[in-house]
Write a sequence for this structure.
């Protein structure tokens, strides 16, 4: 029997959304995404709809008891939308205003790279994990040091300036207010909630962001 | 030698003497048959007599294998010796919805191995739902010096490494179309592997399903040296800025897949705003088909307006846009015949389509959200509007949360040319939401009024009555898809006894059992396949069929690959098909062949 936890709606890449400690992005062998989203585009039927359907069904409900699944169970392969299409739609992370955001897809661009990637921030639990994932995506990119807590120490001006003066790449992000900030200025969860998109730029290009970042950080903390 | 010449040789015998009459007849026939393209006609020709059989086999250049397990590769190559084009279909369609276990089969390897020696002049391979490896692609690249076209639809098992081998070694490649395949990212820059010396012969390149990023510089150069390129379908890693660069190099395109259709960056890019996308599209006077829009930034959509008046095919089914965003574009699409879209456009968007697209032949409306909700963005209102506006409709696939019989009946009357009617009411067992009645009457009207109907997919609350209509009126129906429907065995019996032209039957989660199965014994050998999953057939019932029809391969398995194939008292999945060469040798352990 299915456990309800497993039926929770979620959109995402394989291995995502679990409660376990190890949530690093795993590529489960050959079948990158086919196993995942077949369970995804699915039922969180609100109670009203299922009960009204049941009322109308009761008249015609002879042998259906054997087959008809319980209202909130998973139905594999339903509706009959090709896995390919389901995966493609899942990557958008757009559309419904779910009470609980199932995924947090943001675009990631890197200066000098000809293509745009997308990453689901909900798959990671710390800046370090995000950094590792980004490093894999953009292999020429090495991220600066995030320190023991996984956050840039914005309070230490010296350290910050060192980072920004290097030729290493630094990720910046656009937050809810439309401001471009350095990644790492707020606790991880706050970052996930406010990040709209990511841009990986050379440390030297990011210098202009530092003062604003420190200012905002001081105001927040 | 001419017949007249032969007659002369006979002197004045007053009698026509023609040596080897059969040979002459065959020669004549061969010359005629070369022009015969239709598969069905050729099959008929081959049945006339042995001589015609031979002539037909000798002249058939395109072979179509509807089920890769229906016949062994060697049997095909022995009969048809001079083949230039091969089409093979593998897995049953429900594999697309994860109902088929991973390693079930449909391997291309045995086919390519046999063809590599038998069909040296092969030019075209078209595969659907097959498992294709990089090694298979390498064999293709190495074995066929004249190879020109590779089309892979819903295939898996290969990666960008395999693609690299094909594009670098098949020097006459004209067509490479990858459609909804799962392609591994081997991190190989396959686009750069096209030969770079001289112009290329490329006419069609589709890679919108390839999830890995592409080397744009190489792609741009490839497009620049492909003067014959007519169809180009990009993947979502190509931003709208990059698309622009390609468009200005290839104004001769007839079909374009636009890639992401959103900008790489929005900030600090005044020059992006100035880029004249409208002019770029306007310069493409030949575009008749548009698709892509994989991550659309809706404000860019109006850029396609210059080509709308000529469009016959528009695929917006990955574009999350609403009615207001659709209207300025669709109102120019007077010639549109094929339209695929997301239900995000709502009934209002469909009304706009109905108002303009009077020539529409095929409509597909996909759901943005697959959850079973009480209400959805499209409903009977949209269906009715389409039926009133698009009288020439031939094919429809419509996902919705609720429907009424009245709307379906109206469509059956307004669109008599319907050949394909597929309605998917996402809420299972959902009745007519206005009357509370089952959807029997609606589907009944479809089979009754649409006299050309060959393909039908049903949904919603359906009783055996619906199937009685289908059996009674659906005489031309060849493909039938059923899910969560019917009351008892009688439903399936109606279909199996009534639908004399039924070829492909796929049923899931419906209360049909052994008794119903038995009622099809007279017909199963005429069918391509029967699929029944989560129904009420038992092992004994399936065994019974297998015993009575030895030419049928009867496979039984569980979707979760547990051995035995049973789920409680019933068989989890039954998949049976006719075969000339008996049960397949490559069945995995979890598949039981009875």
């Amino acid at each position: 029997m299915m456990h309800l936890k497993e039926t929770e709606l979620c959109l995402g890449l394989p291995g995502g959304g679990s409660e376990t400690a190890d949530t690093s992005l795993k590529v489960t062998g050959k079948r990158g995404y086919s196993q995942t989203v077949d369970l995804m585009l699915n039922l969180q039927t609100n109670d009203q709809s299922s009960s009204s359907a049941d009322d109308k069904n009761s008249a015609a409900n002879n042998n259906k008891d054997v087959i008809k699944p319980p209202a909130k169970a998973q139905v594999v392969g339903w509706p009959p939308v090709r896995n390919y299409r389901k995966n493609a739609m899942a990557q958008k992370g757009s559309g419904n205003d779910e009470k609980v955001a199932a995924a947090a897809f943001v675009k990631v661009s890197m200066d000098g790279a000809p293509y745009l990637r997308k990453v689901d921030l909900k798959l990671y639990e710390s800046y370090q994990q995000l950094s590792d994932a980004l490093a894999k995506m953009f292999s020429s990119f090495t991220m600066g040091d995030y320190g023991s807590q996984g956050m840039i120490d914005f309070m230490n001006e010296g350290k910050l300036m060192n980072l920004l003066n290097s030729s290493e790449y630094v990720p910046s992000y656009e937050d809810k207010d439309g401001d471009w900030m350095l990644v790492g200025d707020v606790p991880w969860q706050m970052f996930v909630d406010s990040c709209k998109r990511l841009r990986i730029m050379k440390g030297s290009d990011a210098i202009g962001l530092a003062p604003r970042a420190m200012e905002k950080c001081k105001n927040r903390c | 030698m001419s017949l007249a010449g032969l007659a002369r040789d006979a002197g004045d015998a007053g009698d026509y003497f023609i040596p080897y009459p059969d040979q002459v007849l065959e020669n004549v026939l061969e010359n005629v048959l070369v022009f015969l393209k239709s598969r069905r006609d050729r099959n008929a020709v081959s049945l006339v007599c042995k001589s015609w059989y031979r002539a037909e086999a000798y002249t058939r250049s395109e072979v179509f294998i509807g089920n890769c397990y229906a016949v062994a590769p060697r049997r095909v190559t022995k009969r048809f010796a001079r083949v230039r084009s091969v089409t093979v279909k593998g897995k049953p369609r429900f594999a697309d919805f994860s109902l088929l276990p991973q390693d079930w089969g449909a391997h291309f390897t045995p086919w390519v191995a046999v063809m590599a020696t038998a069909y040296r002049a092969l030019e075209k391979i078209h595969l659907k739902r097959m498992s294709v490896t990089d090694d298979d692609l390498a064999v293709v690249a190495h074995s066929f010096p004249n190879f020109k076209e590779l089309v892979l639809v819903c295939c898996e098992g290969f990666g960008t490494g395999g693609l690299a081998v094909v594009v670098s070694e098949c020097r006459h490649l004209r067509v490479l179309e990858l459609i909804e395949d799962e392609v591994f990212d081997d991190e190989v820059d396959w686009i750069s592997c096209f030969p770079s010396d001289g112009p290329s012969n490329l006419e069609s390149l589709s890679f919108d399903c390839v999830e890995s990023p592409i080397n744009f510089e190489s792609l741009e150069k490839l497009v620049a040296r492909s003067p014959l390129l007519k169809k180009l379908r990009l993947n979502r890693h190509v931003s709208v800025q990059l698309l622009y660069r390609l468009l200005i190099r290839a104004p001769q395109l007839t079909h374009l897949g636009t890639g992401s259709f959103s900008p790489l960056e929005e900030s600090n890019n005044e020059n992006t705003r100035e880029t004249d996308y409208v002019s770029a599209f306007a310069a493409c006077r030949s575009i008749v088909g548009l698709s892509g829009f994989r991550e659309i930034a809706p404000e860019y959509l109006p850029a396609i307006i210059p080509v709308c008046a000529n469009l016959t095919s528009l695929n917006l089914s990955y574009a999350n846009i609403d009615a207001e965003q659709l209207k300025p574009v669709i109102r120019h699409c007077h010639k549109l015949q094929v339209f695929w879209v997301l239900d995000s456009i709502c009934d209002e968007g469909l009304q706009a389509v109905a108002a303009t697209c009077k020539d529409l032949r095929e409509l597909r409306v996909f759901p943005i959200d697959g959850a079973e909700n009480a209400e959805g963005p499209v409903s009977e209102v949209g269906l009715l509007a389409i039926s009133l506006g698009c009288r020439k409709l031939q094919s429809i696939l419509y996902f919705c949360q609720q429907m009424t019989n009245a709307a379906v009946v109206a469509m059956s009357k307004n669109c008599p040319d319907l050949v394909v009617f597929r309605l998917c009411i996402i809420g299972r067992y959902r009745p007519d939401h206005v009357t509370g009645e089952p959807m029997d009457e609606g589907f009944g009207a479809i089979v009754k009024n649409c006299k050309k109907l060959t393909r039908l997919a049903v949904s919603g609350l359906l009783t055996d009555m619906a199937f009685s209509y289908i059996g009674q009126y659906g005489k031309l129906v060849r493909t039938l898809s059923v899910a969560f429907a019917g009351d008892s065995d009688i439903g399936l019996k109606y279909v199996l006894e009534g639908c004399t032209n039924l070829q492909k039957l796929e049923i899931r989660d419906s209360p049909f059992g052994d008794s119903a199965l038995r009622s099809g014994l007279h017909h199963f050998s005429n069918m391509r396949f029967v699929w029944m999953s989560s129904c009420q057939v038992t092992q004994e019932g399936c065994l019974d069929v297998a015993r009575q029809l030895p030419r049928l391969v009867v496979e039984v398995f569980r979707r979760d690959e547990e051995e035995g194939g049973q789920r409680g008292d019933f068989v989890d999945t039954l998949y049976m098909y006719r075969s000339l060469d008996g049960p397949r040798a490559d069945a995995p352990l979890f598949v039981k062949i009875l």
